[in-house]
């Protein structure tokens, strides 16, 4: 069975990460980065408040992007997962000063993957801070976007609620096409710099032009 799986899916099983279901899709976007000195930043290490738990996806990324470096941020202390090629930061994903410091330390952001708090306000804030720092051609992924419909994460099942993370990314899809609007509209940074917004069950992928 393993021989029929994609390379990334096999690594997901090897390292015990819950990203396994998305691996076939991710590889479509990551193929061009695989043989490069890619810098990947993942928000959320996993394992909640248990210091030794989580980190499976970080080790998966390290092995997949063999010439790259992996950086991660978690609200809890996950320093035990740091090793050669994996750098761990601690703090909140809506901390603008911290996110900019991480971006400065990395020097170049090729892939950003948000698997953090899943709170709509945090997801949006992280994107608005980090998307401008993303390298041209870079990929930004938000996982577990289904929490956008959960009140416990600041979401709503009302499709008219403009404050959810899903509504936010839907607006970017509209903004990309704002050239066709007949009313006056001021495009956002994301509108002007997103090449596409692709929606999948429970995650969304944005590429920067």
Count of alpha and pi helical runs: 7
How many strand elements?
7
Order of helices and strands: HHEHEEHEHEHHEE
Largest sheet: 7 strands, mixed
Mean pLDDT, as a whole number?
96
Classify the secondary structure makeup into a structural class: alpha/beta
Unreliable sequence segments: none
Strand content: 15-25%
Helix content: 25-40%
Alpha carbon gyration radius = 17 Å
- Report the span from N to C terminus: 37 Å
**Globular, elongated, flat, extended or rod-shaped: what is the shape?**
globular
The largest sheet has its strands arranged as: 3-2-1-4-5-7-6
What does this protein look like?
Strands 3-2-1-4-5-7-6 form a seven-stranded mixed β-sheet, sandwiched between helices. Helix 1 (7-15) packs across helix 2 and helix 4 (96-106) crosses helix 5. It contains seven helices and seven strands. The longest helix is centred in the C-terminal third of the chain and has 12 residues, at 165-176. The termini are far apart. The protein is of the alpha/beta class and 209 residues long.
Give short descriptive properties of this protein.
seven-stranded mixed beta sheet; 209 residues; alpha/beta; 7 helices; 31% helix
């Amino acid at each position: 069975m393993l021989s029929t799986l994609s390379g990334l899916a096999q690594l997901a099983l090897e390292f015990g990460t819950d990203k396994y279901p998305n691996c076939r899709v991710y590889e479509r976007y990551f193929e061009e980065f695989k043989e490069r000195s890619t810098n990947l930043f993942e928000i959320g290490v996993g394992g909640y408040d248990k210091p030794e738990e989580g980190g499976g996806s970080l080790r998966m990324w390290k092995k997949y992007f063999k010439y790259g470096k992996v950086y991660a941020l978690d609200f809890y202390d996950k320093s035990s997962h740091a090793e050669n090629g994996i750098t761990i930061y601690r703090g909140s994903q809506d901390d603008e000063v911290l996110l900019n410091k991480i971006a400065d330390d990395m020097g170049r952001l090729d892939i950003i993957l948000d698997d953090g708090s899943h709170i709509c306000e945090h997801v949006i804030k992280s994107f608005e801070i980090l998307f401008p720092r993303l390298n041209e051609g870079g990929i930004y992924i938000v996982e577990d976007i289904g929490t956008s419909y959960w009140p416990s994460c600041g979401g709503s099942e009302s499709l008219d609620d403009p404050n959810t993370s899903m509504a936010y990314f839907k607006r970017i899809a509209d903004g990309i096409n704002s050239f066709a609007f007949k009313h006056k509209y001021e495009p956002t940074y994301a509108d002007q710099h997103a090449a596409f917004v692709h929606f999948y069950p429970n995650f969304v992928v944005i590429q920067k032009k």
